[in-house]
């Protein structure tokens, strides 16, 4: 960007912006323990602090929408956890002051989650944010939060909590964090808002507040010490690009007319946006997460019908949860390695009623709306699993049945899976994680998780070839689908649809329209080599 200096991170939300950076304030400093004269009063102060945090998060959730509201509500539920309250109150009654009792209780719960690894370890960071808020309240300090300088700025932080990311104001131009990964809450919510974002950017917190930086959320470049003219040029170019992309309309396809469906990834009807050709990934787990009991049949029917009424083409993914995405009502035991345990379709092995109820609800919502949804299962690994799921779904009246390809074993047997199924959808995030034995949340392993890795592309090409041989669609719904640089390559490999966040659709549409199918195939051959 023509700057005097620069840093490099992992670009997780495309777009460019420039402006003065402001570092987010750190957590409150815990003072030395103080003598406690009234343990009962300290216990009451603990309860009051947790109630204040929960109320603040619920207030933010009411003002938010979509994924942001869901995340804030989930955090409020953690602050309301009776076990957490009981632990902290017990420590206060044993002689700790309120702030230290809260700190100790949160720390204990965090260590328990961190020891489990995988998704649960990532959620442990959420407890840090809640702890800082509760301790600040107990110390009569302002709750940690976002800067409010009164002018547009680039927000820089060690990491951003879900609550902070969900509460970003209109004056935030871009996000840069020292930690984080491509599937963190920061990345997901930034993409949903169309906000340029870079994570895992080492050294960014060493820059002084007020430094004018340029952020490229596509390349991961953070340029420091821009002049006022350079910053103005970046912002003018970004505005022009947004205006141009906003005018992009019509179905997806290459320059020579080869069609490629451009679809949306959604968690609920609130995430629907115009400009796409349907829904390629309806993540139904957002209806299940952070609940003490499963959503009822009627509740599920209403949620699915709301989406079916608005979109003609919808691909529903059945519950993708388990011990790596905690659902208390499932009652599953803790596992040493949750990412390799009972998750996705594997939950059906121990709790078949959960899938039966969901398939019944999808079928009923389809009948009520006249829709014909496609339904797929996550974490399918074998042909037997694919066939069993297909028979279950079709017996409920669901006509078009498919599977997610997230496990190399499934990709290697894609042709056999398609004897049982009507379509495949490739989840590049998990497929990369399992192909390279690299945790998808691990920012220092980003090179292994790069979708351009030839081994991953070989697996994608294998699935696309299997679909082409039998005339059945094979799409991609991982983060790679929304990258305008990668999208033509995926089409060159033979995929028939790309599903992504709504903000990514215009840029992907334009990237495909600029190339012929033969040019896309040439890109794919080069990448494979």
How does this model look, in words?
By secondary structure, the chain is α/β, with parallel strands linked by helices. It has helices at 39-63, 66-79, 82-93, 98-114, 118-138, 162-166, 185-193, 228-246, 297-308, 352-369, 383-395, 408-412, 414-420, 428-436, 454-470, 487-493, 505-513, 517-528; strands at 5-8, 10-13, 16-23, 153-157, 172-177, 197-199, 212-216, 221-224, 261-266, 279-283, 314-317, 374-377, 400-405, 423-426, 474-476, 497-500. The strands form two sheets. It has an eight-stranded mixed β-sheet with strand order 1-8-7-3-4-5-6-2. An eight-stranded parallel barrel has the order 9-10-11-12-13-14-15-16, surrounded by four helices. Strand 7 and strand 8 (221-224) form a beta hairpin. Helix 3 crosses helix 4. The relative contact order is 0.11.
């Amino acid at each position: 960007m023509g700057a005097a200096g620069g840093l490099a991170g992992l670009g997780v939300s495309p777009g460019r912006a420039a402006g003065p950076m402001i570092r987010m304030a750190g957590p409150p400093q815990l003072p030395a323990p103080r003598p406690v004269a009234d343990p009962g009063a300290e216990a009451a102060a603990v309860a009051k602090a947790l109630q204040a945090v929960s109320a603040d998060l619920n207030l933010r959730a009411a003002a938010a929408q979509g994924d942001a509201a869901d995340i804030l509500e989930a955090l409020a539920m953690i602050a309301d956890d009776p076990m957490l309250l009981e632990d902290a109150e017990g420590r206060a009654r044993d002689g700790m002051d309120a702030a230290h009792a809260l700190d100790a209780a949160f720390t204990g719960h965090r260590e328990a989650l961190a020891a489990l690894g995988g998704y649960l370890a990532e959620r442990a960071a959420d407890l840090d944010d809640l702890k800082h808020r509760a301790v600040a309240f107990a110390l009569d300090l302002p709750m940690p939060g976002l800067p409010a300088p009164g002018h547009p700025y680039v927000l820089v932080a060690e990491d951003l909590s879900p609550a902070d990311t969900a509460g970003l104001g209109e004056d935030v131009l871009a996000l840069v964090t020292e930690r984080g990964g491509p599937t963190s809450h920061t990345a997901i919510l930034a993409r949903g808002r169309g906000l340029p974002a870079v994570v895992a950017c080492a050294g960014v917190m060493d820059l002084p507040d007020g430094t004018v930086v340029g952020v490229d959320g596509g390349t991961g470049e953070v340029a420091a010490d821009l002049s006022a003219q350079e910053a103005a040029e970046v912002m003018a170019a970004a505005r022009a690009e947004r205006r141009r992309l906003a005018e992009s309309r019509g179905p997806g396809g290459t320059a020579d007319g080869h069609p490629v469906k451009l679809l949306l990834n959604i968690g609920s009807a609130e995430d629907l946006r115009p400009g796409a050709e349907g829904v390629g990934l309806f993540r139904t787990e957002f209806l299940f997460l952070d609940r003490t009991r499963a959503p009822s049949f009627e509740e599920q029917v209403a949620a699915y019908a709301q989406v079916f009424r608005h979109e003609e083409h919808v691909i529903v993914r059945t519950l993708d949860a388990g011990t790596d995405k905690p659902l208390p009502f499932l009652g599953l035991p803790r596992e040493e390695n949750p990412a390799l345990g009972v998750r996705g379709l594997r939950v059906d092995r121990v709790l078949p009623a959960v899938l039966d109820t969901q398939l019944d609800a999808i079928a009923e919502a389809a009948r009520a709306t006249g829709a014909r949804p496609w339904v797929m299962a996550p974490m399918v690994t074998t042909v037997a699993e694919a066939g069993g799921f297909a028979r279950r779904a079709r017996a409920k009246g669901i006509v078009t049945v498919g599977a997610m390809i997230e496990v190399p074993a499934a990709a290697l047997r894609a042709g056999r899976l398609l004897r049982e199924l009507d379509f495949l959808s490739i989840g590049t995030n998990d497929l990369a994680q399992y192909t390279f034995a690299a945790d998808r949340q691990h920012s220092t392993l980003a090179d292994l998780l790069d979708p351009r890795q030839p081994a991953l592309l070989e697996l994608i090409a294998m699935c696309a070839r299997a679909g082409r041989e039998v005339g059945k669609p094979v799409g991609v719904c991982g983060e790679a689908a929304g990258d305008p640089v990668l999208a033509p390559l995926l089409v060159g490999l033979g995929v028939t649809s790309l599903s992504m966040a709504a903000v990514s659709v215009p840029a992907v549409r334009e990237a495909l329209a600029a190339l012929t199918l033969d040019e896309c195939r040439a890109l794919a051959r080069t990448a494979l080599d």
